[in-house]
User: Fold this.
Amino acid sequence: MKKYLIIFSYALVGCSVVPVVQSVENKKIEKTSIRAISIERKDKVWFAGSGGKVGIIEFEQDSILIKQVADAKVEFRSSALVGENFLAINVDTPANLVAISKDLNVIKNVYHEEGEKVFYDSMYFTNSSNGVIIGDPTADCFSILVTNDGGNSWNKIPCKQLPKLVEGEAAFAASNTNVKVIGSTIFIISGGKKSRLFKSKDFGQNWTVFETPIIQGEAMTGAFTMDFYNENIGIIAGGNYDKQEDNSKNKAITFDGGKTWELLASNLYFGYTSCIQFVPNKNGKELVACGASGVFYSKNFGKTWSKLSDDKEFYTLRILDSKTIYLAGRSKISKMKLK
Assistant:
């Protein structure tokens, strides 16, 4: 009889067993808000955060290495691990993109921009050469930086080559997940008064814009986070930051590269969502999300969700595999093991 009780103690979605939390290991990073992390390898995670800080966590070695690489007023919300460097760019102006060696001893400024409206939100590299950084509009288009040499040099795409934004449309620097690159295809999600998908199949030369059904129309509404499993399957989530328990029209999925979207579990499960990510090697079916309602897991393309944690202080996450999730937020980075 005990065997059956153990088996059926798991939550079921259809015939799939939903993972449950085996353990959570927390590492405190005092007085630092963290919205950007990168996994170098199993148990080794890089982070960039407020206070001008970057660092490395090695969970197996019980090691934390932190370095302040900018003024204490600087807040990093976008980063990427590329080749032998860790790149991080701050929000607000002036924007400085720094390349930091893996021993944290060499720090080089590789891009600088000043201006009243300068504010960079998210960074993504598709390989060791090609990367994209997106920022809020300084005119009537996104600020988009591209590199093809691993981040050593950057070019800003002229506004005349980019789609126009409407007034009040921008992006949210919530979890370093507003941009994704797959091959030569760039995906960008906007939020605010409008929440749309911007897509370029030729690394920024030409663009197509698609409407989304997610809640929008106010300054703090729309998609705060996005991920694409491949060029067809994509997910967006967010909601209303000013009404964080509101779970209406706050998550949607596409199976045709963003042309059409289907709202998911509206008025169910979690409200405001800071980060959502696909679980690797699960054909796009499995997802993890974190935000104001806790941490959730789906095994059926986001139709239903199981709560993993009540912790509401995680802002971003990255997934190593179906058993290991790294999360970061208010003064901590955590390793969550599932079974």
In short: The mean pLDDT is 95. Residues 51 and 72 are 4 Å apart (CA to CA). The radius of gyration is 19 Å.
